Structure formats: C-alpha cells, structure tokens
Alanine racemase
Amino acid sequence: MSFPMTPAEARVDLSAIRDNVALLRGHAPGAETMVAVKADGYGHGLVACGRASLEGGATRLGAAYVREALELRAAGITAPILAWIIPPGEPLEKAIEQDVELSAAIPALVDEIAEAAGRAGRAARVHLKADTGLSRGGAAPADWSALVDRAMARQADGTVEVVGLWSHFACADIPGHPSIEAQLTAFDDALAVAEKAGAGGSHVIRHIANSAAALTLPQARHDMIRTGIAAYGLSPVPELGDFGLRPAMTLVARIALAKRVPAGSGVSYGHLYVTDSETTLGLVPLGYADGILRHATNQAEVLAGGRRRRIAGRVCMDQFMIDMGDDPLAEGDEVILFGDGSRGEPTAQEWADSLGTITHEIVTRIGSRVPRVYR
Ligand SMILES: *Cc1c(COP(=O)(O)O)cnc(C)c1O
C-alpha cells in the first residue's frame, strides 16, 4: 500500500462500486438501476462515483439537490439524472436546460417547473412523487390526484413531460415490517390513479425500491431500483448479512506523534481515559470536524500496528489518541479506521454499530479536509 502524502485520506475502490452496482442489477433483471450519488456520493466523491456507477451498469443517477445534478453535468456526465428535493429558489431553468429530471409533489411546483421550462424553451422531465406512508416528501393520498391532474394539464401544453411515478419506503430495512406491504398497496393505488388520468404510458418509470428493497423485496422493484448505500458496498439490512457487497471506502490516517507517558496519565479533554501503566500513546490526526463522531470517545476501534486499539479518551476537533501499550509506534505509521475488514480492521458497519447509528452516517460525515483517493 502506498504511503499517503496526507495526514489522512479516504481511499475509494471504484472497482468495488462497479461490482456492487453490477450485483444490484442482477437482483433486478429487466429493471433500470439508479444509483443515488447525493451527499458527495455518500462521502465517496460525487463525480467519481457517478462515473463508476454508470460503468457498473447503472442507467441513471439520483441526486438530492439540483446543484448536485448540475455538478455531474458539468463533469460531462450525460446519463439521466433525477433531483428530488426542490426547495424554493432552486435553479429550475438551468436544471431543465441541462436535462436534469425533477421531482414534484405539489401542484404549485409543477407550475413553477412548467414556467421555467417555458423560459428554457424545452419540456421539463418530471417524476411525480406519492407519499405512500413515509410522511416525508411526496403528495399525500388525498392530494395525489390533484397533483397528477396539474401535471397532465402542463403536459398537454407541452411544458412538462411526466416520465416517472415514484415513492419511498419508511421501513424497507426492517424485514417483515407491516408498513412495507401497506406502502406497496398504496403505491399501486397511486399508480392506478395516475394511469386513469393518462400519466401511465409505458415510457413512464415506476420506482420505489431503495437498497434494502432492491435486495429483499422482489415485488418492489417495478421499473427501476434506486440504490444508495449498497452501491458503496455497505449492507442496507446488516442483520441479513452483507449480500456479497464490498465496502468501497477505507479511511486511513498517519500517526502524527508517538510518545511514552507514565501510568496514571489522563488522556485528552476531560481525562476520560487514564493510562493504567507506562505506555505509548499515538496521536491520530482526524477529529469530529472530519466526521469522527464525538460519541466514538473511548468507544470505536482502529487498526494500528496490526492490532485493534480502542480510541483513548475524547475525540477532539482535529485529533484523537490511541494507547499502544508497549507495542512499537512511530510518526508516519498508518492507522486504518475502517475498511472492508480484510486486514483485520473494523468495518464502517462496526463503527455504526458501536456508535448506535447507520453506515450512511459514518461515511457521509467524512469531512472536506480528508482527500478522496481513487484506485
Ligand atoms: C437516499 C435515497 C435513496 C437511496 O437509499 P439507500 O437506502 O441508501 O439505498 C433512494 N431514494 C431516495 C429518495 C433517497 O433519498
């Protein structure tokens, strides 16, 4: 492994992303695959992950915000891209000019999109979103038909083209949760309403399945799966195993300082860790500003000198300490915080489990000071 020239870096194996996307496609034969590259490709890098996903066989990319979609376009990516959170003030005209598909859940937004399309001089490609039980984005069942009617009116005047009908699960990662079937039924109902209103052409893509649904609910795949976390190699349903996915990110740091201290030394802010004998401490130059959650204090493990070490004391803004005992440690030695586990290091899943969170949060929080290095 090459010696990093930076204090810390996130190594991203793009071949893992390609392989994971290919594996996901295999679970949804006949359906399209969209990879969610929002939040800087779940912390792995927006453009690089967009490209790797397309190379792995994804046909579309998903973004939360228009600006993410425009960044992909600026990098030369021409595949269809959907942006699904459209707060007031988004650059809709620019998005339409750049052929970014837009989600809408309220008639007023359909109108705004149609007006922007008029200015852009081309029809806007729109996915209508139904709230089937998550109670987050999407039109509630009572409002769905009005949304569809407004979109069809705008389609008739040539400013809008309805190209998708979609929804999102609340509990697809909880196998057997009763809301799953309820949402599928509600989605069928929404599709029936849309089809009756003429929005159900064969070119219209119906999609509801996130990673968990793509891997565990064949009946949810419809025309497209919309996968995020699994594409990065992290299990959407950890209690069911890893599904053969390969984690793409390895987070490494170089020891900035190693020193001997006596027994009874209080380590880091608050002295939450006290050495029980004379020992070697190592300073790892990553902190909560880099996404190492402060809750990892005295909790999460790293691999250093070939062995697991628990973080010793408070995670600080830019650094934390590890206790090496009498094992050798020198400035420049590499520490692995998490990776695919093949060298004995923790995985992002272990970090998530030990911190009471999900891997999505572990990887997306890695901060902008940490360069992403691709291999
Ligand atoms: C993030 C996101 C996804 C991907 O979810 P995963 O659980 O990471 O697969 C799919 N759809 C929407 C609307 C999302 O916001």
